[in-house]
Amino acid sequence: MSASGLPFDDIRDLVANMPKADRKAVHAKREREAQLTKPAGSLGRLEDLSEWVASWRGSATILRPLVAVFAGTHGVTKQNVSPYPSEVTQQMVSNFAAGGAAINQICATYDLGLKVFDLALEYPTGDISVEPAMDEKTCAATMAFGMEVLAGDPDLLCLGEMGIGNTTIGAALYCALFGGEPAEWVGPGTGLDEEGLRHKAEVVGRALETHKGHLRDPLEALRRLGGREIAAMAGAIVAARTQRVPVIIDGFVATAAAAVLYKMDPSSLDHCLFAHVSAEPGHMKALAAMDKVPLLALGMRLGEGTGAALAAGIVKAACQCHTGMATFEQAAVSTKAG
Ligand SMILES: Cc1cc2ncn([C@H]3O[C@H](COP(=O)(O)O)[C@@H](O)[C@H]3O)c2cc1C
Ligand SMILES: O=C(O)c1cccnc1
C-alpha cells in the first residue's frame, strides 16, 4: 500500500508512470516489413497489428496468448435489469470449466489459453441504485487481484467477463464518465424488450442520482458504480502495461473498464486494441468517445471475451505473417520494377 495509506493511490501511481511504446522496435519491424514478399502495405491493418505487438514486446512474436474471463455478481440485479437470473453467472462459470461455452470453442480454434476468475460470486456488490457497489478497499483489492492475471507471463492478454446485470453497470459507468442521458447508454443486454429497456434506463438514472457529486474521479465512479469483474479488468489492463503486454479488450462491458483508465489518462490505453463493436448500442458511442476504432463488427453481443479471442486469432496471424514470411531476397522474388 502507498505511504498515504489510501488504497487507490497505488493505482494512481502506476497509471502516472506507465512505460511507453518501443520506437526502436517499431523501426526494426518496419524495415523487415518492407522486405517481405508482398506489395508494400498489402496486408493492410494486419501490418498495424504486428507493429502494435512489436511496439510493446520488442518483436512481433506471440507464444503465450491468454484469455482471462472475470466473473462477478451484482446487487443491482434486484431491480430486474436483466432477463436472466443472477445464478446464471455461477452456472456459466461451471460451463466454462466444463468447456461448454462459446469462449471455450474460440480459444480451442485459435489455441489460446483460457483462465476464468470468479470474484466472490456469493457476495454480490451493493445495489448501485441505492448504495455504492464497493468500498475503496474492496475495489482496490479487486483491481490488485485482476493484476494477478499476469502471473503466468502471457505475451498477449484478452479480457472478457461474465456477470448477469453487468450491462446495466457498464451503462451507468459510461454515463458517469462521458455524460449524456441513461437512455443513450442502456441497451437490451441479454435481450430486454422495450419496456425492460425503459426500466433499465430508469434504474441507471436512479444510480446516478444516488451517487451525484461523487463521480468526477474515475476510480471513485468505478467503486460506486462498477462491478468486481470491471474493477479486476481495469487492474489487469494496468498490470499488463507495466509488463509491456498488449491487451485486447472485448465488448461493451470490458470497454467500461478501459473507459475508467481512459478518463484517468487517455495514453494509459496505448497498449490496448478494441476487438470489436458489440451490437449493444452504447458500445459504438463509448468507442467514439475514446476515439478508438474497433477491429471487427460481427453483430456479436455475448461478452465472455469472445470478440477479444476472435481478434487474437487475427493478431496471431498478423504476427505469423511478419515473422514467418520470406524476404524477396530469400525467396528469389523480383522486387518492384524501377
Ligand atoms: C447464458 C448466458 C451466457 C452468457 N455469456 C455472457 N453473457 C453476458 O450477459 C451478461 C450481461 O447481460 P445482462 O446485463 O443483460 O445480464 C453478462 O454476464 C455477459 O457476459 C451471458 C449471458 C447469458 C444469459
Ligand atoms: O458486448 C458485450 O460485452 C455484451 C453485450 C451483451 C451482453 N453481455 C455483454
UniProtKB/TrEMBL annotation:
GO function terms (MF aspect): nicotinate-nucleotide-dimethylbenzimidazole phosphoribosyltransferase activity
Pfam families: DBI_PRT
One Gene Ontology term from the biological process aspect of the record: cobalamin biosynthetic process
UniProt keyword annotation of Mitochondrion present: no
Keywords associated with the record: Cobalamin biosynthesis, Glycosyltransferase, Transferase
CDD domains reported in the protein's UniProt record: DMB-PRT_CobT
Catalyzed chemical reaction(s): 5,6-dimethylbenzimidazole + nicotinate beta-D-ribonucleotide = alpha-ribazole 5'-phosphate + nicotinate + H(+)
Active site (record annotation): E304
Pathway: Nucleoside biosynthesis; alpha-ribazole biosynthesis; alpha-ribazole from 5,6-dimethylbenzimidazole: step 1/2
EC number: 2.4.2.21
NCBIfam families: cobT_DBIPRT (TIGR03160), PRK00105.1 (NF000996)
Function: Catalyzes the synthesis of alpha-ribazole-5'-phosphate from nicotinate mononucleotide (NAMN) and 5,6-dimethylbenzimidazole (DMB).
Family per similarity comment: Belongs to the CobT family.
Protein name in UniProt: Nicotinate-nucleotide--dimethylbenzimidazole phosphoribosyltransferase
Biological source species: Fulvimarina endophytica
